Amino acid sequence: MRGLGRVALRWFYRDVEVVGMERVPMDGPVLLASNHPNALVDALVVGCTLPRPVVLTAKATLLENPITRLLIRMVGVVPLRRASDAVPGGSNGVLDSTMNLTTLLT
Fold first, then answer.
1. Element (DSSP H or E) covering residue 8
2. How much is the average pLDDT of 23-46?
3. Is the pTM higher than 0.90?
């Protein structure tokens, strides 16, 4: 999938510059938090530039679409429920913490 991701990045961007790679440990746990209006681009950049296994998270509502569900499962993305995903009027925007317990098991 990294090869396909690199092709997609190259198609959209002429050049991707990574700064500070020496500060990212090559083994052991590390948490990278990227934030961009287009989260797909963040996932592509992180997944394609780090020379180590990467586990990505995504909003669980993406699993509602059969095509994105298949892609998410193929890539190994961990789906997470957000408070904003709660049923309108049923939870007052508060996340039931048990909704993400299954992600700990994956």
1. helix 2-12
2. 82
3. no
Contacts of residue 60, defined as CB under 8 A and 6 or more positions apart, other chains included, come to 79, 80, 81, 82, 85
Q: What is the structure's pLDDT at 91?
A: 53
82, 71 Cβ separation under 8 angstroms: no
| Mean pLDDT for the stretch of residues 11-40 | 84
Residue range 3-19: mean pLDDT, rounded: 82
CA of residue 74 relative to chain centroid, distance:
13
Where do we find the tokens 């997470």? 80
SS3 state of residue 78:
strand
More confident residue, 67 or 97: 67
Nearest to 75 by CA among 88, 62, 87, 93: 62
| Nearest CA-CA partner of 44 in 12, 70, 91, 68 | 12
Residues 6 or more apart whose CB falls under 8 angstroms from that of 48 comprise 2, 5, 6, 9, 16
